[in-house]
């Protein structure tokens, strides 16, 4: 592993420029990694000094605190990809998730059609086990290259403890572990059918996703058969699967288009939280928690965020109110 070049560090770098919600404070230390080698060396440097590190891709599924993010923030731009015969793929985690689909389908491989329209990098997709339309990125992984305790090595995907929109890197006290590259096995298939399926997914997303600054889907959907059966207007395909979309519940609480201090719940899709007026991170989180509290009051279920709250939220008090 190459030594980390400390001259590449900057201090007090605003993260508003690097998150799709355009909110949050500063990174204490900041650097950009353009290769997986640079990413590994930066994270190993931080681990050796017990400096916490955070890896950013497109910043599309996170909300940094207004108080900032302690430690080292690494912007991951590493995007090298190789495809071997038999559907073996080795790729850096800074690649755009959509570009990964496009390059693999051009090689005659299928499986990642759901990635079209999901904003973010492969690394971010791994943290939240991104997926859609009954597929998840974790199902295609064979190995991960990680940096832990300053050591770079290939490991089994089991180390990530994947579940629905979740992994060990989303836990309350996640390990200081960086995923730098992955190996995947994708099935071969007809490229035209793959493009047609991806185009259909994209059309569905365009009708839902707002043009304003957002983090994508803010809350996870709910798997609750009893709740699904109790909702008369829920589409039959969702009822039979026992899945209740978070946006359905928020919308039925009358919150579509609801605003608070520059933050807004999507008017197209209620599971999108938007920054429409230079909102602070605190205003966005306050509105999200208010929506969750309203759903809890009306339906008796809690909503769990897909979006990660990064940095120093130690002074935050959850109230479920807007005051």
Produce the secondary structure layout.
Layout: E1 10-14, E2 26-33, H1 36-48, E3 53-56, E4 62-64, E5 69-76, E6 81-84, E7 88-92, H2 97-106, H3 122-127, E8 131-132, E9 135-136, E10 141-148, E11 151-155, E12 177-185, H4 191-206, E13 213-217, E14 222-223, H5 225-229, H6 236-241, E15 243-244, H7 246-252, E16 259-260, E17 263-265, E18 272-275, H8 281-299, E19 308-310
Parallel strand pairs: 2-5, 3-5, 4-19
Antiparallel strand pairs: 1-2, 6-7, 7-12, 8-9, 10-11, 10-12, 13-18, 14-15, 16-17, 17-18
CATH class designation of the largest domain: Alpha Beta
Looking at CATH, which topology of the largest domain would you report? Uridine Diphospho-n-acetylenolpyruvylglucosamine Reductase, domain 3
Task: Give the helix tally.
Answer: 8
SSE pattern:
EEHEEEEEHHEEEEEHEEHHEHEEEHE
Largest sheet, if any? 5 strands, antiparallel
Q: How many beta strands in the DSSP annotation? A: 19
Q: Helix share of residues?
A: 25-40%
**Average residue pLDDT:** 91
């Amino acid at each position: 592993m190459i030594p980390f070049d400390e001259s590449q560090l900057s201090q007090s770098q605003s993260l508003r420029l690097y998150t799709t919600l355009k909110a949050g404070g500063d990174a204490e230390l900041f650097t950009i990694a353009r290769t997986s080698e640079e990413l590994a060396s930066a994270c190993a440097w931080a681990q050796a000094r017990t400096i916490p590190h955070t890896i950013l891709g497109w910043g599309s599924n996170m909300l940094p605190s207004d108080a900032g993010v302690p430690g080292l923030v690494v912007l991951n731009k590493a995007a090298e990809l190789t495809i071997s015969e038999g559907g073996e793929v080795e790729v850096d985690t800074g690649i755009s998730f959509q570009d990964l689909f496009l390059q693999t389908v051009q090689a005659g491989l299928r499986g990642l059609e759901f990635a079209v329209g999901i904003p973010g990098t492969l690394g971010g997709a791994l943290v939240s086990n991104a997926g859609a339309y009954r597929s998840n990125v974790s199902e295609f992984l064979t190995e991960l290259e990680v940096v832990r305790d300053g050591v770079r090595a290939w490991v089994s995907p089991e180390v990530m403890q994947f579940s629905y929109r979740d992994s060990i890197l989303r836990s309350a006290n996640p390990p200081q572990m960086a995923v730098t590259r992955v190996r995947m096995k994708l099935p071969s298939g007809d490229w035209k059918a793959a493009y047609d399926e991806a185009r259909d997914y994209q059309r569905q997303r365009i009708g839902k996703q707002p043009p304003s600054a957002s983090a994508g889907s803010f809350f996870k959907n709910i798997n609750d058969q009893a709740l699904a059966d109790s909702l008369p207007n829920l589409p039959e395909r969702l009822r039979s699967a026992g899945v209740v979309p978070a946006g359905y519940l928020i919308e039925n609480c009358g919150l579509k288009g609801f605003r608070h201090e520059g933050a807004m719940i999507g008017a197209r899709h209620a599971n999108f939280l938007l920054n429409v007026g230079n909102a602070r991170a605190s205003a966005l989180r306050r509105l999200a928690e208010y929506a969750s509290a309203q759903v809890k009051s009306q339906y008796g279920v809690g909503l769990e965020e897909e979006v990660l709250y990064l940095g120093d939220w130690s002074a935050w008090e959850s109230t479920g109110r807007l005051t």
